[in-house]
Amino acid sequence: MKAYRVILYYNYTPIPDTEAYREKHHLFCLENNLLGRIIVAEEGLNGTVSGLAEDCQRYMNWLENDPIFKGSDFDFKVEEHDIHAFQKLHVRVKEEIVNSDLPVNPRVRTGKHLEPADFKNMLKNDPDIVLVDMRSNYEHSVGKFKGAVTFDMENLRELPDHMHEIEHLKDKKIITYCTGGIKCEKASAYLLEKGFENVYQLHGGIIKYGLEEGGEDFDGKCYVFDNRIQVPVNHVNPEVISKCHICQTPSDRMVNCSNPECNEHVPICEKCGWEMEGACSESCKEHPRKRPYDGTGYYSKKSDGYSPELGFKSFSRNLKVDLAKLTQ
Fold first, then answer.
1. pTM of the model
2. What is the pLDDT of residue 325?
3. What is the Cα Rg of the chain in Å?
4. Residues 5-14: tens digit of each pLDDT
5. Domain Rhodanese: where (predicted)?
6. Which of 46, 129, 151, 169 could staple 39 via S-S, CB 3.0–4.6 A?
7. Active-site residue 178, yes or no?
8. For the domain with range 112-223, which CATH number is right: 3.40.250.10, 3.20.20.80, 3.40.50.720, 2.30.30.90?
């Protein structure tokens, strides 16, 4: 068993004072050696964190026992890992816990949740279903379910522009899916608003399906937003569906272009990765701002004014921080 854990979760429960909660949450993560990305919004909480197994367990217990979330379900997706999956800790306040701008409230109405076992059963036995991938184009380019409908979109805000592509499927059973389930809460709700009647969503997303049911019929790998970049999901009938951006040989090894002004997410095999120094083209390889390539293709975002203890200046400026607590 590996020493570290990576936890993926979300919770659509209203948070009354987001800045105060952000501060409390940030301090707890610091005190328990957790790294990751956590979004706090009035509508709820969304996070991916990594840490030692005991620290992650303490974190999950803390969240489940917080009075704010009493009676709600976090549905943690927990994966083993050798080391931290992040290099920093960021806890931010945003308008939404997943950027969508969709005029829906998943606490009021959303697609029917399908647990992984039920999802697998429907895949095998119900010919009337259509899978719809709600992730970005670079995510499904490296991995997706067999036969799934995909959209050429950069983020979920573009979903309304692609609704015409599935308009003819309104009489079908639609199952939406994404990495951990959070996008589908709003995407499936939006489909219902647009007249789709039989709308389901894979509860816990691709990650939970892989953990509980072996990931059968998910081709390629699943793109994740930490320094692993992509993870294997299918342990039953895996298949590589993407090709190296440089040499076109089969490869599901995703890389962020080492030129920060490009930063394209593309599959690049290990050989081409080293030869191109992590760049997706010769012009990017020669770019004066090209970042050093370490073989992973993952680059931590730089944040001006950030300090691990206080978070972003924009948040800490108007908040009283208990410095004594930080040094305990």
1. 0.89
2. 42
3. 20
4. 999 999 999 9
5. 125-218
6. 46
7. yes
8. 3.40.250.10
